[in-house]
Amino acid sequence: MDANQGSAPSLQVLMLEDIETDADLAQHELERGGLDVTVHRVETRPDFERALESFAPDLILCDFSLPGAFDGLAAIDLTKELSPGTPLIVLAGMVGEDRLVEAMRRGAADCVSKARLGRLVPAVKRALLEAARRRIDLQKHTGFSALDDQLRDAYADERFILHYQPRLSLETGEVCGLEALMRWSHPELGLLLADEFIPALEDSGLICEVGTWALTRAAADAGSWLSKGYSVPSVGVNVSAVQLRHDDFVEVVASAIAGRSSGVNIDLELTESVVMADIEGNARKLEALRAQGIKIALDDFGTGYSSLSYPAHLPADTLKINRAFVASMTTSPTQATIVKTIISLARCLNLRAVAEGVETYDEAKLLRDLLCDEGQGYLYSRPVPAEQVGGMLERLDAYRH
Asked: N or C: which end of the chain has fewer CB within 10 A?
């Protein structure tokens, strides 16, 4: 499938920002992320109010710390009054956490740090999809299930695609494997991330078909890379709770990857909350798959359950540390302690520890010092479509040498 299917969305963005350079940086980030935007920048409450009354923006970006009494919170309140339903994202500089929590409580779709604008595009896509879902929910009350129809059309039209992100050894820099990340090439919203539509796929019941396709597609892509001389030790594919609940889950997985080339290894990634929903039954299924040579990774570890003892009772090979811990561990001793504890637990259980969301050299160095095995994140590579994996592997290998 073509990773560039569908045209980029054309968005009318109302930006409340008094610093022109900050506005330019935000607009550049949106355009760099593939969004076609028209930005209307205003600096004051009267201009903001007139803009809301004169046209209907698709999205509002709002600087939290404006001079004077009209701050981000006041802008949120005014938006709810004059343009209800329009998603608003706060752009924050040096703002206290309590103020950002209050912004989310009052109705901001998200808060993005000006120091980490790389997270702006995913936040925008989530906000736009959520706004679309709200509109669709209204339609559903009349019996029109538009989102289900969109998902089924996307599956039939091959608009679900896989992008791949590498995991690297923190000690040697070698590529240890790839994670397959699903995307939806939406005709209006552009390329959507998995967490923006997987819940809807689960609700629709289509997740089993799409999940099986993802396993088969990942195995085929890995075989293609292998035939071109690229060595990929393994490819991890995410599994949904809905898939795992089915009695024939083991057989479906085995059948989906049965045609893979010799030397192609497919792993499964499951969140801890998914596994814990039925720990005994799921453990039996995962053990049956491990007996067939399929490795199991517990994803987003540390976020779902307080007990650190259960991994000892599960057939797992890898613990993946949630990106939220990694993002703050260099500035928060508490988060650093949590990361250290998870890594120590993995080593005690003879599991590999993989840190997700590694974005800076400082994070990579600290993880290496804590004896974490692997890192995954934008520091090494953004997720790329299958046809770009070979070039990515060459670049990473050249950098290592």
From this structure: C
Q: What is the pLDDT of residues 235-254, one digit of tens each?
A: 999 999 889 989 999 999 99
User: How would you write the chain as a 3-class SS string?
Assistant: CCCCCCCCCEEEEEEECCCHHHHHHHHHHHHHCCCEEEEEEECCHHHHHHHHHHCCCCEEEEECCCCCCCCHHHHHHHHHHHCCCCCEEEEECCCCHHHHHHHHHHCCCEEEEHHHHHHHHHHHHHHHHHHHHHHHHHHHCCCCCHHHHHHHHHHHCCCEEEEEEEEEECCCCCEEEEEEEEEEEECCCEEEEHHHCHHHHHHHCCHHHHHHHHHHHHHHHHHHHHHCCCCCCCEEEECCHHHHHCCCHHHHHHHHCCCCCCCCCEEEEEEHHHHHCCHHHHHHHHHHHHCCCCCEEEEEECCCCCCCCHHHHCCCCEEEECHHHHHHCCCCHHHHHHHHHHHHHHHHCCCEEEEECCCCHHHHHHHHHCCCCEEECCCCCCCEEHHHHHHHHHHHHHHHC
pTM for this structure?
0.69
